[in-house]
Design a protein that fits this description.
The complex is a heterodimer of chains A (about 425) and B (about 170). Chain A is built from 19 helices and 9 strands. Chain A has about 425 residues and is an alpha/beta fold. Chain A has a 5-stranded mixed sheet with strand order 6-5-9-7-8, with helices on one face. A 4-stranded parallel sheet of chain A has the order 3-2-1-4, with helices on both faces. In chain B, about 50% of the residues lie in helices and about 15% in strands. In chain B, a hairpin with a 2-residue loop joins strand 3 and strand 4. In chain B, helix 3 runs antiparallel to helix 4 and helix 4 crosses helix 5. Classes of the chains: A alpha/beta (about 425), B alpha+beta (about 170). Chains A and B meet through helix 7, strand 3, strand 5, strand 9 and helix 14 of A and helix 3, helix 5, helix 6 and strand 4 of B.
């Protein structure tokens, strides 16, 4: 299959502006700015059924249509704060196919009338931010960014902004706080960013992969895009595959590809040919799924994965073979969430603190059956009470781990 | 040290990214600039940044305390930050970290005697398919080192040591 997002795998030097242009790059942006009204762009994206690739899967065109036109200026922000254990797709897109991402960001900016867009990158992407600055300068020099683009009245600037090591800044309102120079703590929603975003102004925030889908949609049309994937989940997805597989990495495939196809056909199966014990389909924030043939043959799209008692999220598939103890997995994920909890809301701050103590004690062999019960109780008490998804998702591996893999916890507390 | 005197061009470039009435947005890039020299943020740098942005020193300190890539005390010249989250651990990151610590004769969080390396265990660096991996945070920013072995890591440390000597002599 020809790639739509990871096009660098088919076209050499697509990270260079001349190669990108030669392959039709920026044609969509030029056409849109010179010939189309902003609302028409949003309509095409809406018709394409593109859903946000950051994890929540919200319809992108619908989000853009919520922008509040009574309040100006507008902003567009690219969420490049990729920090979830298991997720490493946006980095490859930005490194290897940067112009398609930036063109998508520019198209979104035109669609919602923003004249300034920011790329918020996690601080660890230090080298990548400098590299994107060069690519942005290339676009400015070639007349794709700056004042009065293509002889019209539309002007656009794109700036990069580095975070500094805080997973919570991937949450859209925490990201905005951080971009405003504050601690990255989530805001109470509503109001949502399309009405109250950066500097209190209407703002559209999308994930890097979401923006990267936009130029081919504008170039080829909404129907073309909908012809791929499933009815519920249109188009293609970059699946980040990690854990005990022979060939971990990013795989761009249509939605609806099964777990079996991803793991066995594309990634060469499990290391040492071992059986799969569990899958986390959406990184550390996933529910754990007990694996059998039916699970392996489940299509990876938003609706089908939900029937397994999990969410597809950002499609960061972590594979655990039969040698992996689930109490260890839970201990690892809780150490992550405890560290990354921003502390703003009590259920997440306190809940993760206690979950970390309990999982550490259980995993180190010093725990009791009561500790396992208490751990499950703490996790369940947190559910539905946290200010943002971080707190909510911190409980997923705990609850599904204890409920679906009780034998591992029994073994841990006996040992 | 005054950032505006030492790095006038950089400060101007940073401030230009944000609306003048929202210059507080520049606090994070200015902190990176301040950290460049010493590897940590001094009290006077915080005062300096507060003055440039017309916010309080407490506001600046609250940012330093919140984000893990800013440091408020001097450690090794390079911070070697090994990711040990779940996907990396499934590819041997914990054993890798133990072995590197063993070779350096220090524990996680400690600094080598020559002040060159502080070794840290950090949360996800978005390189799960290329573990064991770590980043080095030093005078020249942050660099990724992926698909590492203990031997290659020790070679890198040797090279950093030699580079440091050349600079000194």
């Amino acid at each position: 299959m020809t790639h739509i997002l990871l096009r660098h795998r088919d076209i050499p030097d697509i990270n260079m502006i001349n190669a990108y242009k030669k392959d039709g790059g920026f044609a969509a942006f030029r056409k849109v700015v010179t010939k189309m009204k902003p609302a028409e762009v949003t309509e095409i994206v809406k018709n394409s059924s593109l859903r946000g690739r950051g994890g929540a899967g919200f319809p992108t065109g619908m989000k853009w249509s919520f922008i509040d036109n009574r309040n100006w200026p507008h902003y567009v922000v690219a969420n490049a704060d990729e920090s979830e254990p298991g997720t490493f797709k946006d980095r490859e897109i930005m490194e290897a196919n940067p112009f398609q991402f930036l063109e998508g960001l520019a198209l979104a900016s035109y669609a919602v009338g923003a004249k300034v867009a920011y790329v918020y990158l996690r601080g660890e992407f230090w080298q990548l931010a400098a590299y994107l600055d060069e690519k942005i300068a290339d676009m400015e020099n070639a007349g794709y960014l700056g004042e009065k683009l293509f002889g019209t009245d539309y002007s656009l600037k794109i700036y990069t902004h580095l975070g500094a090591g805080a997973y919570i800044c991937g949450e859209e309102t925490a990201l905005l706080e951080s971009l405003e120079g504050k601690r990255g703590q989530p805001r109470v929603r509503p109001p949502f960013p399309p009405s109250y975003g950066l500097y209190g102004k209407p703002t559209i925030i999308n994930n890097v992969e979401t923006f990267t889908n936009v130029p081919p949609i504008l170039a080829n049309g909404a129907d073309w895009y909908k012809s791929m994937g499933t009815l519920d989940s249109a188009g293609v997805k970059v699946f980040s595959l990690s854990g005990r597989v022979r060939k971990p990495g990013n795989y761009e495939l249509p939605f609806g590809t099964t777990f079996r196809q991803l793991i066995y056909e594309h990634a060469g199966g499990v290391q040492e040919g071992r059986p799969i014990k569990a899958i986390m389909p959406a990184g550390a924030s996933s529910s754990l799924i007990v694996v059998d043939d039916q699970v392996l043959d489940t299509p990876m799209d938003y609706a089908s994965v939900r029937t397994l008692g999990a969410d597809l999220g950002s499609a960061s598939v972590i594979v655990l073979d039969d040698t992996v103890d689930i109490d260890w997995v839970v201990n690892k994920t809780i150490h992550f969430f405890k560290h990354e909890s921003c502390g703003k809301c009590t259920p997440c701050r306190e809940g993760n603190y206690w979950m970390k103590h309990l999982t550490s004690r259980i995993h180190s062999g010093g725990g009791s059956k009561d500790d396992v019960d208490l751990l499950l109780n703490v996790a369940k008490q947190m559910q539905g009470k946290c200010l943002c998804a971080l707190g909510e998702f911190s409980t997923m591996a705990v609850v599904t781990g204890i409920e679906r893999f009780p034998q591992d916890f029994k073994k841990a507390v006996k040992a | 040290m005054s950032l505006e005197k030492t790095y006038p061009k950089e400060v101007k470039q940073i401030l230009a990214k944000y609306p003048p009435e929202h210059k507080r947005s520049a606090v994070m890039p200015l902190l990176y600039l301040a950290q460049r020299e010493e590897g940590y943020i001094t009290k006077s740098a915080m005062q300096d940044i507060a003055q440039i942005l017309e916010i309080t020193e407490t506001d600046v300190a609250s940012i330093v305390g919140f984000y893990t890539l800013y440091h408020d005390k001097k450690e090794g010249k390079y911070r070697m930050q090994v990711c040990t989250d779940l996907p990396c651990a499934l590819r041997g990151a914990d054993e890798f970290l133990d072995a590197v610590c063993g070779n350096l004769g220090i524990q996680v969080g400690e600094t080598t005697e020559d002040g060159l390396i502080t070794i840290e265990s950090v949360m996800c660096l978005a390189a799960c398919d290329k573990a064991p991996m770590f980043q080095t945070q030093g005078p020249d920013g942050i660099k990724y080192h992926e698909l590492m072995t203990v031997d290659r890591t020790m070679e890198l440390i040797k090279a950093l040591k030699q580079a440091g000597r050349e600079v000194k002599s």
